Amino acid sequence: MHDDRTLVEARLERALRQFVRPAQYGAKVPLVLSVWHVPGEPVPVDQALQAAYEPFTTGTEWGKPWSTSWFRLEGRVPEEWAGRRVEAVIDPGFTGDGPGFQAEGLLYDAAGVPLKGIHPRNRHLTVGHPARGGEPVHLLLEAAATPAVLHGFEPTHLGDVLTAGDRPVYRFRSAELAVLEEHVWQLVLDIEVLSELMYELAADRPRRHEILRALEDMLDTLDLHDVPGTAPAARAALTDVLSRPASASAHRVSATGHAHIDSAWLWPLRETVRKASRTFANVTALAADYPELVFSCSQAQQYAWVKEHQPHIWERIRKAVREGNWAPVGSMWVESDANMPGGEALARQITHGRRFFAEELDVETEEIWLPDSFGYTAAFPQLAKLAGIRWFLTQKLSWNQSNRMPHHTFWWEGIDGTRVFTHFPPVDTYNSQLHGRELAHAERNFADKGRATRSLVPFGWGDGGGGPTREMLEKARRLRSLEGSPTVEIEKPSAFFAAAEEEYGPHAPVWSGELYLELHRATYTTQAKTKQGNRRCEHALREAELWCTTAAVRNPSYAYPYDALDRLWKTVLLHQFHDILPGSSIAWVHREARETYARVLVELAEITAEAVRALGPGERAVLNSSPYERTEVVGDGVVTVPGLGTAAITATASEAVRAERTGGTIVLENAWTRVRIDADGLIESVRDLNADREVLCGRGNLLQLHPDHPNAWDAWDIDRHYRRRHTDLTDAESVELVEDGPLRATVRVTRTFGRSRITQEIRLTAASRRLDIVSDVDWQESEKVLKAAFPIDVHAERSAAEIQFGHVHRSTHANTSWDAARFEICAHRWLRVAEEGYGVAVLNDSTYGHDVTRTPYEGGLGTTVRLTLLRAPHSPDPETDLGTHRFTYTLLPGAGVGDAVAEGLALNLPLRVTEAPLLAPLVRVDDPAVTIESVKLADDRSGDVVVRLYESRGGRARFELTADFPVSRTEVTDLLERPRPETSVTSGPTVLRPFEIRTLRLRRA
User: Fold this and answer.
1) Is 772 among the catalytic positions?
2) What digits encode the pLDDT tens for the residues 541-569?
3) CA gap 911, 860 in Å, rounded
């Protein structure tokens, strides 16, 4: 046979494009339009129903950026369409920018009941199936003029309503009633499924040629000038080739409907409320036509929004959950960033998420669902297990720049040794269309062939694109068992995970440690004020809960602010979403985040102050919210305060810190540390007097400015090539000794560079070996990154960086591609480098990005630790981080891990000076390796005290918890404060494994 494949394929493609697809809709009549342009922010439908509308014609521009317009659409179904499937088909001006990144709409009926979303790939609403003929049509379309922001990462001011301007961004194209030619529509789907499969099969496979010839026969049957009339016969020509079953060894795909909706990104939070509503309306409407649909949906926050703003849709969701069409997944309040949230915050993400799904929808979720976050902390497996979660899903590591993950299904082992069964869908997307190319890729790409046979495919348009479509469901029906293709079964993720674990669990490999994403490393730094707001709020919540609990126990008349704390926690958790906290959203999102954090901090300060007042009258005292005793300079005295307790302020005349200037050199010295600062304001020497050794192997606190031009993803990425050029900021405008003892010694250094200015105070006190560097920056750079370098005289094979409930080690060398890829790393409050017998920690109060490298010098090999302080990318926020910043970082010589833990907490939990009685700590532990993470009242409002603690040094710890109030029983609970049946503690010492987290419920006597 002559090889005419390319000719037949070209014939097919033209026929489909020019004749068949355009014939899916037959007769059409226009709808009559009128419009009301909302003068400000979006309004509820009740207000829109009462508004005054004016005539509007298609072809007219509408919608200044971020505005809302309500359109009335009115018409009548022609009598002659009786018995046909009639749909309203609407195009408010869709562009080629993809679903979810442009105009969207939600259709309501005349009474204001939401019906269905309108999106670029989902433009229809069924009016009659079958139509009676003659029925009136009265619809209301809420249309959002969301501008497309991300164009090749070029700067734009469209990302904030304050700067976007008033020029309309859309032109209303059409609004019609149309007859859906169902046989033609079904024929299109037949052709797509078969042709997509055909193109994925090798040219020497008989099946490819069978499909080609069947499609050729179909074309011979089809009259391109009468597609509707000949479509049934054309479909019949494909019946045999579509009915061939899949082979027994075919890869098995568990498909689940999905719509990954970023809670904010290229749109503000308020728009996500509407995006979720439109998509959820679509899905509940789709389930009526496709009872096999299962839609998997995460993020309890989005459910809560819809419950508040769209009660009709909320009730449809509840019905879909009961009937099995809807599967709440994910177990978290939002799909948060998984690197930077603090330990307690990550625990609360899970407890608030799981509790919402259980209380509102009677569903106990069993998985963590984070397909799009930018790397995953090694604390997750233990947190998952402690919350009753069995499984973990992500897809993002398929984006790695350098290294391919060796497994798709495996056990993930956390820092404490806990393992969770984990799956990376090999389809490499969470927005599948069930396209033949995607399914073939999933099968070819699957790394666990031979012992495992199945993978998960989430399908549906995300980010406001409307979720799964009827076309996807139709494809799934055809692909259930089709020769040459993986089999496709629509089911809940829990069904997939249970089957995969049963099949592969005993043989699955183990991945130990963090799941580091080799991309988007700049998200540890971008939008510094968002990160600082998060850090401040996390610690302010910790402090508020501690003193509110103390007040509730000490003063029976004090009312613990359950509702306020719950609301504030949820606000902070929302802003940990994986495009807010990482700094990768538009300017509007981060402007609002800064304002929100400021309000949260004010309210938490008021809550804490009220709790302290409830403790009773007292003298001026110092309150310590850290679990560790600390001695610090406060006012004119040195105070020692017990962990979680209070102490009186005592005056002292001790001259424990000295400062002197000799020529261009300033020396600061206390009982532990001698610091020499040179004429450039750089730290020339730090001498650890106890260890009798030099800490630095070069000048410390060296600010370095690099060009910062990533290949793509400006806010997200810092690419390795940035290291090849930098400027050392050594010129000082002034170096001043501004405090010279006896309690504080401070050197103020001012530098100007480019259009920016930085003033740093290098501080040593009488009470601590910490060397604090307080920075005030007026940052006006463009596409630069600012780092602070400390070349430390230790030969460190690895660094230790604090993460949630522990720390991780990372190599300081680049021996392997995996090591080399970690050229930018995340740390929480501290990062430590050490050789046998000696270590140094660098602490911070709001910085997450770091890098650690080996540094040869004349005397040997040192280790340079750099903090990544500020960036200035232009997309999606063209003015990222411009303005003033204030932050502190610290050098801690001679630091063990325990010192780093305690001093990191001290830096982030400043002592509170106020009038208060002197009180013993509410709870305490007798082993410093055990760190108390939170003290609160139980969520069930029983009045019980809940204490969460963990082993923080990486070894075994034997401890006893002592409470300063009567306790009838101490119970070990899960994260949700439910008893764990396997353990119960009433008294006596307890052993914790390395990094083990334990939640204790103290039942008050």
Assistant:
1) no
2) 999 999 999 999 999 999 999 999 999 99
3) 40
Residue 893 near residue 669, CB atoms below 8 Å? no
Of 217, 372, 776, 819, catalytic: 372
pLDDT tens per residue, range 833-885: 999 999 999 999 999 999 999 999 998 999 999 999 999 999 999 999 999 99
Q: Kind of pairing, strands 510-512 and 409-413?
A: parallel
Q: Which 8-state DSSP code applies to residue 524? A: G
Tokens 């200035």 locate to 872
Measured CA to CA in angstroms, residue 17 lies from 1, 20, 22, 103, 393 at distances of 28, 7, 7, 25, 38
Asked whether the predicted pLDDT for residue 651 surpasses 80, the reply is no
Going by their DSSP bridges, the two strands 883-892 and 838-844 should be labelled as antiparallel
Q: Provide the percentage of residues in the chain whose pLDDT is more than 70.
A: 99
Segment 223-240 mean pLDDT = 98
The structure tokens 């102050």 sit at 609
Angle, vertex CA 694, rays to CA 688 and CA 699, nearest 5 = 115
CA distance 806 to 995: 6
List all residues 6 or more positions away from 775 whose beta carbon is below 8 Å from its beta carbon.
758, 759, 760, 869, 885, 886, 887, 888, 889
- Which run of H or E residues covers position 551? helix 528-554
Residue 962 bridge partners (DSSP): 924
174: tokens are 């059409």
pTM for the predicted model, two decimal places: 0.98
pLDDT per position as a tens digit, 44-90: 999 999 999 999 999 999 999 999 999 999 999 999 999 999 999 99
Nearest to 848 by CA among 415, 379, 535, 538: 535
User: End-to-end alpha-carbon separation of the chain, Å?
Assistant: 90
Alpha-carbon span 103 to 146, nearest angstrom? 5
Answer for the pair 453, 527: CB distance below 8 angstroms, yes or no. Answer: no
DSSP per position, 43-88:
--HHHHHTS--EEE-TT-EE--TT-EEEEEEEEE--GGGTTS-EEE
Distance CA 75, CA 106 (A): 18
Helix (H, G, I), strand (E, B) or coil at 201: coil
Nearest to 869 by CA among 849, 890, 842: 849
Q: Are 951 and 995 in contact (CB under 8 A)?
A: yes
Phi-psi region of 386 (alpha: psi -120 to 50; beta: other; left: phi over 0): alpha
Q: Using CB atoms within 10 A of its CB, is residue 626 exposed (0-12), middle (13-18) or buried (19+)? A: buried
Average pLDDT taken over every residue of the chain: 97
Give the strand order in the sheet containing 124-128: 25-30, 174-180, 86-91, 124-128
Q: What CA–CA distances, in Å, run from 751 to 32, 688, 699, 756, 775?
A: 65, 28, 16, 9, 11
For residue 986, the model assigns a pLDDT of 58
Q: How far apart are the C-alpha atoms of 287 and 460, rounded to whole Å?
A: 14
Which residues have C-beta within 8 Å of that of residue 451, sequence separation ≥ 6? Answer: 504, 507
Rounded mean pLDDT, 717-742: 97
